[in-house]
Amino acid sequence: MDLFNILEYKSWSDRRTLDAVAQLTQAEQKSALDFARQQLNHMVRVEELFQARLRGVEDPHDSTNTEHLPELAELDSRLTAANQWSLAYARSLTSSSWKESISFTFVDGKRGRLSREEALFHLINHGTYHRGAIGHALDLAGGHRPADTYNVFIHAAEPERRG
């Protein structure tokens, strides 16, 4: 298993979650929709922060969430773009650059250091955690919780594995 495949899985899982959240109604499922938007906003901001850190440029945000929540369409666009960027970035790395360390400052002022590979893995793992929270909110609101496990992804991508 390689990180490219896992980044594709993350993108697929995020898409399924975004599509499920889009089915929530403002009138009947407002609290679940607002919670999902808050979680997605946090996910997007963390993605954008780590993109900047991987690129060696200034952080675009001074926090990992905001008081005002962007609309779902904006969050969808930004998360989709972040996933596309991460996969393209991973493909651009040379075998030696995966292990290179990046040093940065978290928004809380604490210093951090990760390899490029670890930073990308953090984004994968971080998304999994927040998709789970969104899935729980979807369940409570009577929405559709998509199956977003790696098993579902790989068997959809490679149906011959079912044989």
From TrEMBL:
Keyword check for Cell inner membrane = no
Database matches in InterPro entries:
DinB, DinB/YfiT-like
Q: Which Pfam family, any one, appears in the UniProt record? A: DinB
Keywords from UniProt, A to Z, are: Metal-binding
The family assignment reads:
Belongs to the DinB family.
Protein name as annotated: Damage-inducible protein DinB
